[in-house]
Amino acid sequence: MLDVLLLRRTLARSPVRWVMHMSMFYGFLALAALSGLGLMLDIVEHFNLAGFAHEAEMVKGMMALPFDVFGYLLLFGSTIAISRRILIKFVRDNTSAYDALLIGAVFLITVTGFYAEWMRGNSFLVGNMFEYPIYAPHFALIHTLLALGLFALILPWSKYIHVIATPMTLIANRGGE
């Protein structure tokens, strides 16, 4: 289980790759969970389910900091991935256009997520400095469609399936190959 949660095998091979993978894995995992929670809170707030609209709005306000922290974590990991492909000759020589597209898409989705949050005025670190409520829903929709497109339509048929398959294989084999 520690091989899955701490990526010990990746750490043994390369500390830089380990930091990159940990940042991307936990950043993405936390953002996906927070987005699901945010969707549920939006539904509760919109339909005022069980009279909890006010409480849902308060919880959504408290989610700005975790969204920022895990968003920056994902941005950090994807920046390392892009940098490795640009700066390290061996990695650059073994990077296909397909790899570059996938890493670039993760980076683009992360940036559009920040921009959408900034336009809503939800960013904990930036505040409402870039708030522009008229266009905020449009950028949020663009971000959502890009994220769903990549992770729901492309992930299952791409190299990124290792995000799901590798942990399941390690757990099934109790750490073995």
Account of the 3D structure:
- The chain is an all-alpha fold.
- It has a single domain, classed as Fumarate Reductase Cytochrome B subunit, CATH 1.20.950.
- 77% of the residues lie in helices and 0% in strands.
- It is globular, with a radius of gyration of 18 Å.
- It starts with a helix and ends in a 5-residue tail after the last helix.
Index terms:
Fumarate Reductase Cytochrome B subunit; 77% helix; mainly alpha; 9 helices; 177 residues
| Average pLDDT score | 88
The total of beta strands comes to: 0
Question: How many separate domains make up the residues?
Answer: 1
- Percentage of residues in strands: under 5%
Structural class: mainly alpha
Low-confidence stretches: none
Termini gap:
13 Å
N-to-C order of helices and strands: HHHHHHHHH
Described by its quaternary structure, the protein is: single chain
Give the CA-based shape. globular
CATH topology: Fumarate Reductase Cytochrome B subunit
Tally of DSSP helical segments: 9
- CATH top level is Mainly Alpha
How helix-rich are the residues, as a percent range? over 70%
CATH architecture label: Up-down Bundle
Rg (CA only): 18 Å
Report the sheet with the most strands, covering strand number, pairing sense and barrel closure.
Answer: none
